[in-house]
Amino acid sequence: MRSLSLVPPALAEKFPANRPTVGYGVHRVVGLETEFGIHAPAHPEASHSVLSLELVNAYGHKLATDGTNVASTEWDYNEESPLSDARGWKMPRSIAHPTQLTDRAMVSDDGQEVHMLVNLILPNGARFYVDHAHPEYSSPETTNPIDAVIWDQAGDRIVQQAADHIAASDGAPEVLLYKNNTDSKSVSYGAHENYLVARDLDFDELTEYIIGFFTTRQIITGAGRVGIGNLNQQPGFQISQRADFFEEEVGLETTIRRPIVNTRDEPHAHPDAYRRLHVIIGDANLSQYSTWLRVGMTSLVLSMIELGELPMVELAEPVKALQAISHDPTLKTQVLVNGRGWMTAIDIQRIYQQAAQDYLNRYGIDDDQSRDVVNAWAQVLDLLEHDPMQLADRLDWVAKYQLLNAMRTRHKLSWDDAKLAMLDLQWADLRHHKGLYHTLVARGAIRTLVSEEQIQQAMHFPPTTTRAWTRGRLIDRFGAHLAGVSWDSVLVRPFRSGPIQRFHLMEPLAGTQDHHDGLLAAGKPQLSLDDTAANRAEIGRLLELLQPYRVTGD
Amino acid sequence: MAQEQRRHAQRAQENYLPDPPPADAPAPGAAAAQTSDLDSLLDEIDDVLEVNAEEFVQSFVQKGGE
Q1: Which end of chain A offers a freer environment for a tag, N or C, measured as fewer CB atoms within 10 Å?
Q2: Domain of A362, in residue numbers
Q3: Is A477 helix (H, G, I), strand (E, B) or coil?
Q4: Domain end position, chosen among A451, A486, A514
């Protein structure tokens, strides 16, 4: 299937012909990943991998109990791996037996090893799985910052619902989840962003231009952290959760010698049309506003880089600058920019914001989402400069900083008081009655951009504007007839007999609701395995619909 | 030129060095903290905050990810 484009044809005509671009304004294929902190306070000896496994299985069990399909249970890594059929599995026994929370294989009463699911692909098109020692939610592909927020927040609800499901089991250990990025001892875990960019864009050029942006965007997108240093060596507050864990400018690693620009390149899409920019420098945001600006500003910057129109801000020492900026919540710290002199992060962000505004004007891009981001970006920079605390109703780090300062004043605490570290941690607690972010939202002290109904809907339904729609709706409707699903492939085995039929969805903008409505429409009943003429006819229609993606030569 | 470079180097040291631990002086935002809204919010947070903060924070140990 040929590659499609998000860029309206009239706009594409105005773009320089020698600069291929796969997005415009804030519109771009994007997906957000979150690794959650996981903690069983009563079982400090519990393996985090096993806890994460429990959580993923609990959600699978919950969906199965609710009558919802989770079609693929073993991620289709290489397409040749045998696909296990885990339908009909039971709640793992260890959930009722906290003593079994170890790395030992779990064994059922009859001595059989209990089959555990490490991967779920959900009806909303997302992936929920165990990544090392953390549960991870990877959102489905979306095409704009508001949708990115909605499906990111849906992930927060999904993992918490999984923990609630464990809690409902008799004698179960309490499993708590945190949307943060460090235990403030020595360990950091990620919240990654993925943006598709044009394959023809030179990666060295992309890197050169984006480092200045990635180093300074934290003043808007930071989540705030109590403690300074990767080992928490020094008491205090800093803007970013992640800054102290970065050591390099560019590199492939994500767990050691972390780089500001990560070079991992598995596009999960047509490799000759797309590169996936895997961004590891961000903080996990609870605030919708922070997430929205993180995705919106970054998308705008990428749109300008693709066209070769982003101003160059070359930091003399990016890694040092990253940490110096993070360590100064007064925002007065200046960093050296080659050819421009000493500048604050606000000064540098103003260059990018102004460029984005000029870019929208130059090409007459005036859709609401792009305009809203560029205007909010300007307003936030003004407030950061003149009265940052006014942003306590919008930005994670400012809201957290205001609370911490108020608490310090009230109880006369020094920065190394455990109460402040507790506040930092509990900010990110996903339980609505315990989490401080959620407490502030409930009081109306933090702005939201989307409704709770939209988020709840997104827990069960995929975005309509990408192939995630086909993935999610297939799982919901035809789950029993699927043998495997990944970001870019679907394996169908009608009635669980005969050979597996393979389909590749290499174009993320194909298989949207517009392309495939009808057969996959919401509200249609799940297709059972009953071998009836009516069901055969539906499968026939499905195979016809998937025909353009069929992998031949099997 | 050499003088300019020295000045830059000195600026660099001043700018890139981590801030000293802030004194327990009134912090930015403390003024806003006086508002009754924030006061009642703090009451609520005092209620909801884990009581065994020290132990809880100590026990929150994570493994690497990514």
Answers
A1: C
A2: 9-26+199-236+288-451
A3: helix
A4: A451
Among candidates A166, A149, A89, which has minimal Cα distance to A120? A89
Q: Give the closest of B41, B53, B65 to A134, CB-based.
A: B65
A208 and A331 housed in the same domain: yes
Nearest to B18 among A327, A392, A422 (CB): A327
Task: Give the residue from B7, B13, B16, B59 with the most A CB atoms within 10 Å of its CB, the best one to mutate.
Answer: B16
Q: Which helix (H) or strand (E) holds A456?
A: helix A452-458
Q: To the nearest whole number, what is the mean pLDDT of chain A?
A: 90
Q: What is the pLDDT of residue A65?
A: 83
Cβ-nearest to B64 among A255, A335, A408: A255
Report the gap between the CA of B7 and the closest CA in chain A (Å).
12
Angstrom distance (rounded) from CA A220 to CA A397: 8
**Main-chain dihedrals φ then ψ at residue B23, nearest 5 degrees:** -65, 165
Q: What is the pLDDT of residue A288?
A: 98
Q: Tens digit of pLDDT for each residue in B12-55? A: 444 554 444 344 444 444 444 446 788 899 999 999 999 999 99
Amino acid at A273: A
Structure tokens at A360: 């929208």
Instruction: Tell me the average pLDDT across A18-22.
Output: 95
What would the two tokens of residue A549 be?
């993606």
From the candidates A403, A416, A427, A441, which should be mutated to test the interface with B, based on the most B CB atoms within 10 A? A403
In a domain, A141, yes or no: no
ipTM entry: 0.88
Q: Which positions ≥6 away from A9 have C-beta within 8 Å?
A: none
* Structural domain includes residue A136: no
Q: Which amino acid is at A302?
A: L
Residue A148 maps to a domain: no
Eight-state DSSP code of residue A271: T
Q: How far apart are CA A80 and CA A97, in angstroms?
A: 36
Amino acid at the residue A378: A
Number of domains in chain A: 2
Interchain CB distance below 8 Å, B64 and A189:
yes
Task: Output A372-377 pairs: Cβ under 8 A, ≥24 positions apart.
Answer: A372/A296, A373/A26, A373/A145, A373/A292, A373/A293, A373/A296, A373/A297, A373/A299, A373/A300, A374/A300, A376/A289, A376/A292, A376/A293, A376/A296, A377/A220, A377/A293, A377/A296, A377/A297, A377/A349, A377/A353
**Considering the domain boundaries, does residue A155 fall inside one?**
no
With a CB cutoff of 8 Å and minimum separation 6, the contacts of A386 are: none
Is B30 close to A419, i.e. CB distance below 8 A?
A: no
Q: Are residues A378 and A475 in the same domain?
A: no
